[in-house]
Design brief:
There is one protein chain. The chain has 4 helices and 6 strands, in the order H-H-E-E-H-E-E-H-E-E. It is an alpha+beta fold. A 6-stranded mixed sheet has the order 3-4-2-1-5-6, with helices on one face. A hairpin with a 5-residue loop joins strand 3 and strand 4. It is elongated.
Length: 191
């Protein structure tokens, strides 16, 4: 008869949610160290020795710099900081720049499509914007998902240079300095 294998019990870190053996390769290893010393001392025996020496050094430094204060907080404390939102694997989420990117794409040799990206970052509703663009330039304009899964507006025709004035006049929240063209793969300011 075949031998029945028991499932492996994996200890996951409470800080970075990686298996405890892989914490040293994550981005938050310094934050994981106290948790590892408490919950998995057999995996990282050097951490215990390192922490003991740091604790001893820290206590001696506190004794040297201690002074009697009258109800005030230590000078090292500051205002509480907001915690940074981290994605799995220790990655941080980047905040998107507020900019409108206009790109002209040619299809079928003579037909072209002008693409507007980033208009929604200024609080503009893309469905309303596509209707206004379609009426102004008498073309088809529609909201589509771009290659990065973000919504963008596709307008039929080559209206890349006319669209800058229309966008700044229609939506005053969008400054002209935040509008860029993509020409030959390079980002060029519209101003």
């Amino acid at each position: 008869m075949a031998e029945i294998l028991e499932p492996v019990q994996v200890l996951y870190c409470g800080v970075c949610s990686l298996p405890a053996e892989y914490c040293e390769f994550g981005a938050d290893f310094e934050k994981c160290k106290p948790w590892l010393i408490r919950n998995a001392p057999q995996l990282y025996p050097d951490l215990i020795q390192e922490s003991n020496s740091k604790v001893a050094d820290g206590i001696s430094d506190q004794l040297e710099s201690s002074s009697i204060t009258h109800g005030t907080e230590p000078s090292g404390s500051s205002a509480p900081k907001e915690p940074v939102k981290r994605l799995p694997g220790g990655k941080t989420k980047k905040k998107e720049k507020q900019e409108v990117i206009i790109e002209k794409v040619t299809r079928n040799k003579r037909k072209s499509i002008t693409t507007l990206k980033g208009l929604d970052l200024f609080g503009v509703k893309l469905s309303d914007a596509s209707k206004k663009l379609g009426k102004k330039f008498a073309t088809g304009a529609f909201v589509v998902k771009g290659p990065t899964e973000k919504d963008q507006i596709d307008v039929q025709g080559d209206i890349a240079y006319d669209i800058v004035e229309f966008v700044t006049d229609t939506w005053p929240d969008v400054p002209e300095t935040a509008i860029y063209f993509i020409e030959d793969g390079k980002k060029v300011p519209a101003v």
